[in-house]
Design goal:
The chain is an alpha/beta fold and 380 residues long. It folds into 3 domains: 152 residues, Rossmann fold, CATH 3.40.50; 133 residues, Rossmann fold (3-Layer(aba) Sandwich), CATH 3.40.50; 43 residues, no CATH class. It has 12 helices and 12 strands. The strands form 3 sheets. A 5-stranded parallel β-sheet has the order 7-6-5-8-9. A 4-stranded parallel β-sheet has the order 2-1-3-4, sandwiched between helices. The protein has a 3-stranded antiparallel β-sheet with strand order 10-11-12, with no helix packed on it. It starts with 17 loop residues before the first helix and ends with a strand.
Length: 380
């Protein structure tokens, strides 16, 4: 369990015994689901300690270098990671446009990660391919943090969401959570559901069109945890039930055609009128960026917490960076043995389709194979 440091104003982070403060050992952050609830709570507690005592941590990563490999555009995730490292006293290298790197010349993910991990103490990576962070961790000599892999997972946004909820609601259990918009491709939606199903008494209201519905494997996770969920097609129907409303944009970059995107955008818009039937203590979250799914007039409602959420995200990432770097060197890598199944992952956006040298990693689940990179399901 993390003990909040008791240090005087003349002390700096270098004088704090982090071996006592940080009991969590975390070598990579690919999927938040791999952490236990106690470990997540320790990260949340550490984020709160940093928020309340930022001066105590300002030198804690002095001499450390973080590499940011962003194969996709980002504002909040990239800048909050960079700010987090600078506020911890570290340095940042990397790229935010693969066209300005050797990726544009055809360099593989394996080679990029192998080289960069020789320069940096920790790698933060965003990639449009699902399972890319898992693949990177196979070859990196430094810890890898997943900053979003296609429509798959976004664990640091989920950690941000949990820190926000814990601070704003005072708990992570017995919540009715509405998720609205792009539930099909929304990696933030998938990640937050997979985390919240682990807490007692949580239920979900899924608000989307049939085309943007939640994938089956996420519903399977809710079913396995015994969580109740309801699917509705309007915000008005859901609003009175909710303790938390998690809005998302319809992501144009995930659609194969503009026509398909145009048919989906603008269907769900949260405005002041729709909030009249909401609970007084409702909390409205959004991973941002916003397009048109939340009216600007909602920003002034005290229940709107999405801008506060971005600040909580910086503290969450500071806690994560500090925990990973204080966990010590990566353990020796084990040889990866390819699955005996010769099939190809059915998910066309899986990293294995663009990086064909990767070992095939499947686990059997009845008549299905589950991809070890993207969680895609393939019939045997």
């Amino acid at each position: 369990m993390i003990t909040v440091p008791r240090v005087g104003k003349n002390h700096c982070a270098a004088e704090i015994e982090y071996g006592v403060l940080l009991k969590v050992q975390l070598f990579n952050m690919i999927d938040l689901e791999r952490l236990g609830k106690d470990e997540i709570h320790e990260l949340i507690t550490l984020a709160g300690s940093i928020k309340n005592n930022p001066w105590a941590y300002r030198e804690s990563c002095r001499g450390k270098i973080m590499a940011t490999l962003f194969y996709e555009p980002s504002t909040r995730t990239k800048m909050s990671f960079q700010t987090a490292m600078y506020r911890l006293g570290g340095e940042v290298i990397g790229f935010d446009n693969p066209e300005n790197s050797s990726v544009s010349k055809g360099e593989s993910l394996k080679d990029t990660v192998t080289v960069v991990s020789g320069y940096a103490d920790i790698i933060v990576m965003r990639h449009p391919r699902e399972g890319a962070a898992e693949a990177a961790a196979l070859y990196s000599k430094s810890p890898v943090i997943n900053a979003g892999d296609g429509g798959h997972l976004h664990p640091t946004q989920t950690l941000t969401d949990l820190v926000t909820l814990y601070n704003e609601k005072g708990r992570l259990d017995h919540l009715c959570v509405g998720l609205c918009g792009d539930l099909k491709y929304g990696r933030t939606v998938h990640s937050i559901i997979k985390s919240l199903v682990r807490y007692e008494g949580n239920s979900f209201v899924l608000i989307s069109t049939r085309e943007m519905a939640l994938p089956r494997y996420i519903k399977d996770a809710m079913d396995a945890a015994g969580c109740k969920y309801t699917e509705v097609s309007s915000l008005e129907e859901a609003m009175p039930m909710l303790d938390v409303l998690y809005m998302t944009r319809i992501q144009r970059e995930r659609f194969a055609s503009m026509d398909e995107y145009e048919r989906q955008k603008g269907i769900f818009v949260l405005n002041e009128a729709k909030l009249r039937s909401a609970k007084p203590d409702l909390k409205i979250l959004h991973p941002l960026p916003r397009v048109d799914e939340i009216a600007v007039g909602v920003d002034d409602d005290p229940r709107a917490k999405y801008f506060d959420q971005t600040v909580y995200g910086m503290y969450a990432r500071m806690a994560l960076i500090l925990t990973v770097l204080k966990s010590g060197p990566l353990p020796p890598k084990k040889s990866v043995i390819s699955s005996s199944h010769e099939c190809i992952c059915s998910n066309r956006n899986c990293i294995t389709h663009s990086e064909p040298y990767l070992p095939h990693l499947f686990t059997e689940a009845g008549d299905m194979l589950i991809c070890g990179y993207c969680d895609g399901r393939t019939l045997i």
